[in-house]
Write a structure and sequence with these properties.
This protein is an alpha/beta fold and 256 residues long. 32% of the residues lie in helices and 21% in strands. The chain has 2 domains: 94 residues, Ribosomal protein L30/S12 (60s Ribosomal Protein L30, Chain: A); 144 residues, Alpha/beta knot (3-Layer(aba) Sandwich). The strands form 2 sheets. Strands 8-7-6-11-9-12-10 form a 7-stranded parallel beta sheet, with helices on both faces. The chain has a 5-stranded mixed beta sheet with strand order 1-4-3-5-2. One of its GO terms (molecular function) is RNA binding. Keywords: Methyltransferase, Transferase. InterPro entries: Alpha/beta_knot_MTases (IPR029028), MRM3-like_sub_bind (IPR053888), Ribosomal_eL30-like_sf (IPR029064), rRNA_Methyltransferase (IPR051259), SpoU_MeTrfase (IPR001537), SpoU_subst-bd (IPR013123), tRNA_m1G_MTases_N (IPR029026).
Length: 256
């Protein structure tokens, strides 16, 4: 069996191009993005993502997964792996895969989470992962929400990005889509008209909107919600982190 291509220097042109895939503009331009770590690469394979390239250190050379993609695999040195990695302890396996459908959806059904300008990559990834765990049907992010193809978001999602659809579009379009699909729209917001989520009646089809960490949901979006809901604070904290609040609401609305 032929040996795989080997790259030793982190100054290699292909490695330089690969490094650029952490930027949103280059992800959108090339239609590809990079994932890192054996768990994510294995999940991408299991859920039939389209692999473009695979980069591994020598310890993975005889791995079953690497053998499957041998035609597009390249062995890299530890120096190169350290250069490519976004983590302190790189595992030495990276895959370049095709981006999924960005906003190609005309109808929604079931339970959805919408993110209105959530900025922190860790929050976005955690919300997607929790939506997956709570049995939601998908996530829609606004155009100003942290891009779910960013490496930090990818790591936080831990493979959930391959389990449920994630769309990125103008938030007003998302709301119109939900209304057209006859989903009830809940906004996570504390105001005079809002009610505790525990007082809601159980329904099967809805969209839950979570807002920006500092400013919450924009007023234009609040004007379009059917009902605004909040989590009662039992202690002295003023508020909850948006990812924590999303988790409480997602599970709470499922268990009414």
């Amino acid at each position: 069996m032929d040996h795989m291509k080997y790259i030793e220097s982190k100054k290699n042109d292909e490695i330089k191009q690969l490094k650029k895939l952490s930027a949103t503009k280059n992800i959108r331009k090339t239609g590809t993005y990079m994932i890192e770590g054996f768990h994510l690469v294995r999940e991408a394979d299991q859920y039939e993502q389209e692999f473009v390239k695979l980069f591994v250190t020598e310890k993975y050379e005889e791995d079953r997964l690497v053998k499957k993609y041998r035609e597009i695999a390249t062995v890299v040195s530890e120096d190169v792996a350290n250069e490519l990695s976004e983590t302190k302890t790189p595992q030495g396996i990276f895959a370049v895969i095709k981006v999924q459908a960005g906003d190609d959806v005309n109808e929604l059904s079931g339970k959805w989470v919408m993110l209105d300008d959530v900025q922190d990559p860790g929050n976005v990834g955690t919300i997607v992962r929790t939506a997956d765990a709570a049995g939601y049907d998908g996530v829609i992010t606004s155009l100003d929400t942290a891009d779910f193809y960013q490496p930090k978001v990818q790591r936080s999602m831990q493979g959930s990005q391959f389990h449920l659809p994630i769309y990125r579009m103008d938030i007003n379009r998302a709301i119109n889509l939900a209304k057209k699909s006859q989903l009830k729209i809940y906004g996570s917001e504390v105001n005079a008209q809002a009610k505790p989520y525990t007082e809601l009646d159980k329904i099967d089809d809805f969209a839950l909107i979570m807002g920006n960490e500092a400013h919450g949901i924009t007023q234009d979006v609040l004007n379009e919600t059917d009902e605004n809901i909040y989590i009662p604070i039992l202690g002295k904290a003023e508020s909850l982190n948006v990812a924590v609040a999303a988790g409480v609401l997602m599970y709470g609305l499922q268990s009414l």
